[in-house]
Write a structure and sequence with these properties.
This protein has 157 residues and is α/β, with parallel strands linked by helices. 32% of the residues lie in helices and 15% in strands.
Length: 157
């Protein structure tokens, strides 16, 4: 198998709560050459044992930036390159086009992104369609689904 060169995307975790999810997402970011952003506060330390276990020996290779607040992150990135990933919209991620450098923002596992943020940018919200049997898909799985769709759209045909 020949290694691919991936278009650059940004995965943004707003106040993540579960270290194993963040570790899995970090490993995914290394494997897809994505930039991981973490918006504080984080509910765990970045040297947490379960984070490192989920990230395996790849955690040291994660391209990661920490941000003190959501506002600080938003000041550094144009809103037309940001998608807020949420269960609180009907706009499917399937129906959007993603350019390299796009930022995908995911909320904390227990509550998602703040409603005030989603209300401020309703046209920048996307969701993963799912049955009514569940409230949401696991965070790490959600990141993988959306990130790989963005990559698929941008690979040479």
């Amino acid at each position: 198998m020949h290694p691919l060169t991936f278009p650059q995307f940004n995965i943004v975790l707003f106040q993540p709560e579960i270290p194993a999810n963040t570790g899995n997402i970090g490993r995914l970011c290394v494997g897809t050459e994505a930039h991981l952003h973490i918006i504080k506060p984080c509910r765990f330390l970045l040297d947490d044992k379960s984070l490192r276990r989920a990230g395996l020996d790849y955690w040291q290779d994660v391209y990661i930036t920490l941000h003190d607040s959501l506002d600080a992150f938003l000041l550094q990135h144009p809103i037309d390159r940001i998608w807020f990933c949420t269960t609180k919209t009907d706009r499917s991620y399937w129906n959007q086009r993603y350019a390299p450098q796009t930022c995908f923002v995911f909320g904390p596992e227990s509550r998602g992104l703040p409603e005030s943020l989603l209300d401020s940018y309703p046209d920048r919200c996307i969701t993963i369609p799912m049955s009514a049997a569940i409230r949401s898909v696991n965070l790490a799985n959600s990141v993988a689904v959306i990130l790989y769709e963005a990559i698929r759209q941008n690979l040479p045909r």
